[in-house]
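Appendix B, record 7
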Amino acid sequence: MKVFAERHHLNFPYMWDSTQDVTRSFGVISPPTAFSIDSNEIIRYQGQIDEHTQTASAQGVDYLGNAIILKTVGTWTFVKSGKT
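Structure tokens (predicted):
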């Protein structure tokens, strides 16, 4: 994960949960699962990152990206869990 984060210039905190202890404590039943947590430590999004496959031409919904976009326009109305 460290190499991936460096290669893709991730500028946000991430965590690798090799034992799945933290994952289970959040009630996740279908990893991988993304969380978006606001500055008040409230989970605003929990679910899939997207529906894309590994291919560059894949079409699909960008669940986490949509949640972040809505946050930047001032609303957290997209709190739907993305198919987890």
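Remarks on this record: The chain is about 25% helix and 10% strand. Strands lie at 34-37, 43-47.
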